[in-house]
Amino acid sequence: MVMRQMRENTKWIMLVTALAFVALMVFEWGMDASGRSAGGVGAIGRVNGTPVYYEEYLAVYRNLYDQVQMSQEEAITSQQVTELEDAAFDEVVNAILVRQELERRGIRVTDDEVRQAAQFNPPPQLAQNPGFLTEGRFDFQKYQDFLANQADEAFLLQLETYYRDIIPRSKLVRQISSGIYLPDNLLWQQWRDLNETAEVRYIPLDPAQRIADSEIEVTDAQVRSYWNDHQDDFEQPQRAQVNATVISKALTAADSASARARAASIVDRLAEGEDFDDLALLESADEVSAGRGGDLGVFLRGQMIPVFDTAAFEAPIGEITGPVESPVGIHVIRVDERWAQDSVQAAHILVSWARSDSAEIALLTMADSLETLGETMPLSEAAGALGLPTQEAELNTEFAVLAGAGSVGEGVDWIFEEAAVGDVSPVFETAQAFYMLEVISTAEAGVLPLEDARGTIEQILRFEQKMARSLETGAQLVQQIRAGEPLPNVAAEAGLEVRSAGPFSRDSFVPGLGRYNKAIGAAFGLDVGEVSDVIETDTNAYIVELLSRTPADSTEWMAQRESQRQQVRAQIEQTRIQAWLESLRSVARIVDRRDEVLQPVDESAPLPTGFGF
């Protein structure tokens, strides 16, 4: 049993060899089908003279593609392909930089270090393997007995390769993150900020609402002066005004009903005696598990989609559970084995949320027809011929979002790299929709003209004057309260509202008060019963009275202190590693030749698909 499970984990160990950087420096090799061909050319770039080989890049791309595809129901869009290509190249560059740094620092691994690690630091997936668990806990004796009696030389070689990769990277992480010191007072302050609570009542002065615009005068000279003094605030990216039409990919009610009916039919067929494995092969949309009779293997609690995870850990062993609906589809589940509520072996048949064949054909036909019409006529006419609405929108290089289509970076690239005013785009695709653009006008990056900025500036200046008046009024109210008049009475006389809030911590978002501002801070700087000065925030002004404060429990803090220390250290390490990688990239000589070397492939060729867990 243990040998079989270990052999099944061999592929995992080989994968981890490529991935490992101590959980803090993981270069996730991923992606699928770059959409471009290398044409037999090996190097697609260089990093400090080291070639970036197409095969290495493609391996990363394929895994990342698979990861994204498994996380969403729809096929990968052309825009996502572009993003994945860039992410793959960046990850390969990072991996090369790390290898170069290991060489520069002379970081090596000895045979003894490999032996020690193999004996006492098993790879995470093996440490979670049910074959090495005793009463739900990892049993080192079982694991070491297995290694002592291991005769599979290929497996041992793969295990050795894993450690020869991960140990030097572990040493590098320790060097990068050395010197992290976390004194108890820092940990206590963090704990206190999260766990000390306060309750307050307060008077919001609401300057924007309580003082009418008509009471405030803003002169042209003030507007011009503000615009001259705040040029940076009015910097604008390259932008375009476009006409757009969107074809939504949203499922219809009929499509959802069809999926539910199909899942219910599968449950009925199983109840009538049909074989689960055979039905999974015939009916499951999860192409990865379908060929194994729906088998998902062994997985830990929390690894699956939450609703699926809950069902798998609560379902009776050996019985059919479902239909269970999740964001990716409807699952019919069979739990084969469960260990101490920590891990499960299960199988499923997936009915995906998908358009019917007729709806899919109609959608694609509509998109193709729109593109054909757009080649010979303005967008409004092309859309009108198909009964599609149009919308005007402004898109820019920093915020490329179109209502109904989501992020439209591919369309924005077309506007600013290929198009001219009046051009109609091809049909682009996002996860939510197909869309087409027509360029109405474009504007280069620069400072927003004064007349275009005038309305915003006038609003800012009016609010500044309203706030100044409110601070004066508030100061008078504070004097009355401190002279002995109750806060509710003072508020009522001024026609103001008294609100209550809490208990809340320094880290909380407090409705009416906000988060991480002076009003929240004041609540923890007052004595019980004390009233604050007038507190100004970005959007309001307040008078705050502390009603009660509950200190953080130092005993609870002591009990979790070391766990907290490890978490904070891990966060700091991650930040350091990211900054270190960025510094390496900033001085590296990185040459990206993908546009020269890789040629577009036939767009009609199907991309790899499949859902896997």
Automatic annotation (TrEMBL):
InterPro entries, alphabetized: PPIase_dom_sf, PPIase_PpiC, PPIase_PpiC_CS, PpiD_chaperone, Trigger_fact/SurA_dom_sf
PROSITE patterns (UniProt xref): PPIC_PPIASE_1, PPIC_PPIASE_2
GO MF, one example: peptidyl-prolyl cis-trans isomerase activity
Taxonomic superkingdom: Bacteria
Classification via Pfam families: Rotamase_3 (PF13616), SurA_N_2 (PF13623)
Domain PpiC: 237-337
Annotated keywords: Cell inner membrane, Cell membrane, Chaperone, Isomerase, Membrane, Rotamase, Transmembrane, Transmembrane helix
Membrane topology: Single-pass type II membrane protein
Record's keyword annotation contains Cell membrane: yes
UniProt-listed SUPFAM superfamilies: FKBP-like, Triger factor/SurA peptide-binding domain-like
Keyword Chaperone found: yes
Compartments (UniProt record): Cell inner membrane
Recorded family membership: Belongs to the PpiD chaperone family.
Protein name in the entry: Periplasmic chaperone PpiD
Organism: Gaopeijia maritima
Taxonomic lineage of the native organism: Bacteria, Pseudomonadati, Gemmatimonadota, Longimicrobiia, Gaopeijiales
